[in-house]
Amino acid sequence: xxxxxxxxxxxxxxxxxxxxxxxxxxxxxxxxxxxxxxxxxxxxxxxxxxxxxxxxxxxxxxxxxxxxxxxxxxxxxxxxxxxxxxxxxxxxxxxxxxxxxxxxxxxxxxxxx
Amino acid sequence: xxxxxxxxxxxxxxxxxxxxxxxxxxxxxxxxxxxxxxxxxxxxxxxxxxxxxxxxxxxxxxxxxxxxxxxxxxxxxxxxxxxxxxxxxxxxxxxxxxxxxxxxxxxxxxxxx
Lengths: 113, 113
Hints:
The structure holds 2 protein chains of 2 kinds.
Chain A: E1 4-7, E2 10-14, E3 19-25, E4 32-38, E5 45-51, E6 56-59, E7 62-67, E8 72-77, E9 86-92, E10 102-103, E11 107-112
Parallel strand pairs in A: 2-11
Antiparallel strand pairs in A: 1-3, 3-8, 4-5, 4-9, 6-7, 7-8, 9-10, 9-11
Chain B: E1 4-7, E2 10-13, E3 19-25, E4 32-38, E5 44-51, E6 57-58, E7 67-73, E8 76-81, E9 90-98, E10 101-104, E11 108-112
Parallel strand pairs in B: 2-11
Antiparallel strand pairs in B: 1-3, 3-8, 4-5, 4-9, 5-6, 7-8, 9-10, 9-11
C-alpha cells in the first residue's frame, strides 16, 4: 500500500520567514495530494491540494509543488504569521484505493512573533 | 464548503461500556465515510471505510467486532466502540466524501476510565 513520509516533524520559524514542509510517497499511482492544517483539538482543514497533472499550485501565501518523478511534494508558506502555527499533514490518494487518503506523520509548525 | 458534524464532541465512560459516535454530512450526501483515530501529537490513522448500504472495510489491525460501523443512510455513519477499555481512549474523527474531497468532522474525544 501507499506510504507517506513527512519532514520535519517540528518546525520553528520567525514571523515573516518562510516555512517548507516536505513529503514523499511510495505509490506511483497516487494522483491527488492534499495538505491539511489542524489546530489543537480541532478538525483537519484542507488548505491546498494538487493533482498529478500539474507541478505547482499557489494560493496567496501558500504554494505546493509536486515532483512526480521523484515522488515528492512540498508545502511552502511565505510571510508566516503566528496564526499559521498548527500541525500540517500531507496526504496522498489514488482513485484505485477507493478515495482513501494516506497521511504523513504531521509537522508541528511554530511561528514566533 | 460541505459541513460534517460529529456527536458527541467528548465522552467519558466506564470500562466495559459501549459508546456510539455519530457522523453526519449536513448539506450533502455521502456514500462513503471514513473513520480515523488520532493519538496525541500523532497523525490520523484510518480505521475503516464505511460505504452506505454495505459492510465497512476495516484496515489491518482494527478489530471489526470491537469497532462496529453502520452506514445506514447517505448522511449518517456511526462508530460504536464496544466494551471500551482505557486503551481505547483517543480522538476519533470521521470524514465524508463529497465531490471527490474528504470533509472532516470536528472529532470526538473518548476517555475510558
